[in-house]
Amino acid sequence: MTYLSVNLNRVALLRNSRNIGIPNVVKAAKLVLDAGAYGITVHPRPDGRHIRRSDVDDLAQLLRQHYPQAEYNIEGNPLEPLFMEIVCGVKPNQCTLVPDLPNQATSDHGWDLEQDSDRLIPIIQQLKENGIRVSLFMDAAPAVMAQARRIGADRVELYTEPYAAIFRQGHSDAVLPRYVDAAKAALEQGLGINAGHDLNLENLGKFCELVPGVLEVSIGHALIAEALEMGLPSTVKAYLAILSHIES
What we know:
Layout: E1 3-7, H1 9-16, H2 25-34, E2 39-42, H3 53-66, E3 71-76, H4 83-90, E4 94-97, H5 113-129, E5 133-138, H6 145-150, E6 155-159, H7 161-168, H8 176-188, E7 192-196, H9 204-210, E8 214-219, H10 221-230, H11 232-244
Parallel strand pairs: 1-2, 1-8, 2-3, 3-4, 4-5, 5-6, 6-7, 7-8
Helix pairs in contact: 2-3, 10-11
């Protein structure tokens, strides 16, 4: 089945609004992993507005000591100061490279490989030398998958906000073929497929049912919002129930 990685950024964002240490990011990680999540995702940014460097280290220690089977995915822009130092210091299972700018509220587009390939090649090589799997955050464009493979990526993470936006309008069939074609192109190149951004309990099932080969979904904002009503462990289990019913 498709694996669930829970993004903990929103937990850290709430914590940072008060200087009293709650909610606790490490405790949240324990809750989601004990509920069955495959792994956790964090996206440290230079301004530390949610996940901080200390969180990255604390979570790495938690996984090493208590959840060695869990996957650790760190995402972010490798061109930002200190990002590569943080990632190579921690050596997570996977690093997802995202082309967001420091002032962006959230990621909103994939890499332009015509423009960025030369800069990404040595970064990808450095990550692989540290034993880290590399995923590139990409728009659902079939034509770019061959280039993603050529520059050394192991996986691509399909940017799913356009799908989520159309789904809310009741017209997801208008955009899903693009994701299907992009996934097929990635698979033909030997790339693994991840997906993320605005996936939730309502739209996840249809996406994973129709888009082939999705290995992992990274979900944060919606999952944390849903957990305010359902509780964190129950929400994780609801996602896992959806994913367990998707035929491979």
